[in-house]
Write a structure and sequence with these properties.
Elements: E1 3-7, H1 12-24, E2 29-32, H2 43-46, E3 56-59, E4 62-65, H3 67-77, H4 88-102, H5 111-121, H6 125-144, H7 160-174, H8 183-193, H9 196-199, H10 203-206
Parallel strand pairs: 1-2
Antiparallel strand pairs: 1-3, 3-4
Helix pairs in contact: 1-3, 1-7, 4-7, 7-8
């Protein structure tokens, strides 16, 4: 099986997919799509992903877009370790928690949204930071209220919620959000960063200073 990940080192959506691929021990080739250079808008990449976003995973020439769909496919193709429970109720509950980040938090502070705020509404750096802090804070507060006091969201091993949390905490720090109100989440993030799968996927690993 040949896997090619269309990726950007600083993308939190791509970061979560890299973590999942590493946890699965999947062998893949990374191809950078430089979002700052607008490579995602090029005709060649639009043929890969009509949304012109990263990540996109090619599987033997067939393309899967959207990080949740990619991770769900990985669970089927590489069943161990499982990131989304098989039990229907637990599966629904787990996806709901992951969607707090994937659907309701991260999209509001990704690059294209912040560019639009600057271009269309004249938002300066302070306003952009305030916007990001607000929406990240709301998302993390909802997740903290449902976080385990011990272990991972996945129990003794990470699941998809733990995977998507890591890039979101990275973004929270980037926008200087006070993380003191989120002790369970910061504990989980710290535990995740101790894993090789996370260390190898980090932006600073792909693009050393």
């Amino acid at each position: 099986m040949e896997l090619t990940l269309h990726d950007y080192w600083r993308s939190s959506s791509a970061f979560r997919v890299r973590i999942a691929l590493n946890l699965k021990g999947a062998d893949y080739r990374g191809v950078e799509v430089d979002l700052l250079a607008n490579e995602q808008l090029a005709e060649g990449y639009a043929a890969v992903n009509a949304q012109k976003l990263v990540p996109a995973l090619e599987v033997d020439g067939q393309v899967i877009t959207q990080s949740l769909a990619i991770i769900d496919w990985l669970d089927g193709a590489f069943p161990v370790p499982r990131l989304i429970p098989e039990d229907p109720l637990e599966r629904a509950r787990t996806i709901a928690l992951a969607q707090i980040i994937i659907a309701d938090t991260q999209p509001l502070q990704n690059l294209r949204v912040l560019k639009y705020l600057r271009a269309q509404f004249g938002a300066d750096d302070a306003a952009v930071d305030q916007w990001a802090q607000h929406w990240i804070g709301e998302g993390l507060a909802a997740l903290e209220a449902q976080a385990p006091e011990e272990g991972y969201f996945g129990g003794t091993a990470p699941n998809i919620v733990d995977v998507v949390l890591v890039p979101q905490i990275m973004n929270a720090r980037r926008y200087k959000l006070d993380l003191a109100p989120f002790p369970c989440l910061t504990r989980i993030d710290e535990a995740m960063h101790a894993l090789d799968a996370v260390a190898q996927a980090k932006p600073e690993t792909l693009r050393p200073a």
